[in-house]
Design brief:
Layout (H helix, E strand, L loop, with lengths): L1 E5 L4 H12 L4 E6 L18 E5 L5 H11 L3 E4 L6 H6 L2 H24 L2 H6 L1 E7 L24 H20 L3 E6 L1 E3 L8 H10 L4 E4 L5 E6 H14 L5 E4 L4 E3 H15 L12 E4 L14 H7 L7 H14 L1 H7 L2 H11 L4
Parallel strand pairs: 1-2, 1-4, 2-3, 4-5, 5-6, 6-10, 7-9, 8-12
Antiparallel strand pairs: 9-11
Helix pairs in contact: 1-8, 2-4, 4-6, 7-9, 7-11, 9-11
């Protein structure tokens, strides 16, 4: 038996595949374009019998058809996406192409494959679309967390493109009976995260004693979940979730961005103190806020907790300490992904070099 995963070389994809295989899961065919945020080295140690990497675009219908016909997977886990809000503001076209056209293309190919299956195989087939809590928009400071019934109200080209994928997946279930499921996860952190995102960017810059760029006042609030917990939730949904259903996956760990940064700096002050008694938090520099910056995200995970028995295993302080340790001890991985293009991106978005 096999599952088809898209975007397996990325942050969440890497952790999902590693967790899936470690728990005795079936083999993985991994379709990935290997863009800047996808690192082939992440999974290069896996044997071909467990992980087959196919470099290609989710917008390539002929390739998707070939992989489905050749490997006949029992499920598709669709993780491939352009995922960074800042990049979507400066270049939205790539987000429309990958996140909307790519999702449509994969749904079409997977539906055709599903229709070709016999009764048992057809009943067992699943399509898991991995989305984001950002499709719901922004919460006020006293608003309850988003539930699966909250309306979509995206505020960036990124979240709008993911919301479009949500609607496509839902429509394929409602129109065709296609067994699609959707998850909305809160902010992830942990191993293998590309350092354009808040936590790895701050860890890497703090280790190097470089400026720590903070958008606006730094009081934007996010709910955080360790990526290994998210990967475990995806496996639960894949194996036990109901077709047509949506599941919110949160960590119940809301923190303001400045609190997150202070936590990172405290861990580094204790484990890798700066010379002369200086504190890492003193490297923080406030920069102009990004357009349309959502003030708060949080999701209510009651449904996945009660129906599938999912609960995070990492507390945020323990998970953050583990993340700092991972980036400190994997400097070669960090060096391999922080290329000249990455340094140029830092300069464009934060006004500083890498």
């Amino acid at each position: 038996m096999t599952i088809l995963v898209t975007g397996g070389l990325g942050f969440i994809g890497t952790n999902f595949i590693l967790g899936h295989l470690a728990s005795g899961g079936d083999g993985v065919v991994d379709l990935d374009l290997a863009t800047y945020a996808g690192n082939p080295a992440n999974l290069s140690h896996l044997p071909d019998g467990e992980h087959l990497l196919v470099r290609g675009d989710v917008c390539d219908r002929a390739l998707a058809d070939r992989l489905l016909a050749e490997h006949r997977p029992r499920a598709v886990v669709h993780l491939a996406a352009e995922s960074h809000v800042d990049r979507s503001i400066s270049g939205p076209a790539a987000f429309v192409q990958t996140n909307i056209v790519g999702t449509f293309t994969l749904l079409e190919a997977a539906k055709a494959h599903w229709e070709s299956l016999d009764g048992v195989g057809r009943d067992a087939f699943r399509f898991l679309y991995v989305s984001t809590d950002e499709v719901y928009g922004s919460l006020g400071p006293d608003d309850p967390p988003f539930t699966e019934r909250s309306p979509c109200a995206p505020n960036s080209p990124y979240s709008a493109s993911k919301a479009a994928g949500d609607h496509l997946a839902r429509s394929y279930f409602k129109t065709y009976g296609f067994p699609a499921m959707t998850t909305h996860c809160s902010n992830n952190y942990g191993p293998y995260q590309f350092p354009e995102k808040l936590i790895p960017l701050m860890i890497i810059n703090a280790i190097a004693e470089k400026p720590l760029p903070v958008y606006g006042d730094g009081r934007q609030v996010r709910d955080w979940i360790h990526v290994e917990d998210h990967a475990r939730a995806l496996s639960l949904v894949l194996e036990r979730g109901a077709p047509g259903e949506t599941y919110n996956v949160g960590g119940r760990s809301e923190r303001a961005n400045m609190e997150v940064l202070e936590g990172i700096c405290t861990v580094l002050d204790e484990t890798a103190p700066r010379a002369g008694g200086l504190r890492h938090i003193d490297l923080a520099v406030h920069v102009a806020d990004r357009p349309g910056h959502d003030r708060r995200y949080a999701v209510d995970s009651t449904k996945i907790e009660e129906e599938l028995g999912f609960y995070p295993s990492y507390s945020f302080p323990d998970g953050l300490e583990a993340a700092v340790c991972w980036y400190r001890t994997n400097s070669r991985w960090v060096e391999s992904v922080t290329s000249g293009e990455y340094r140029d991106w830092l300069k464009r978005h934060y006004g500083m070099g890498g």
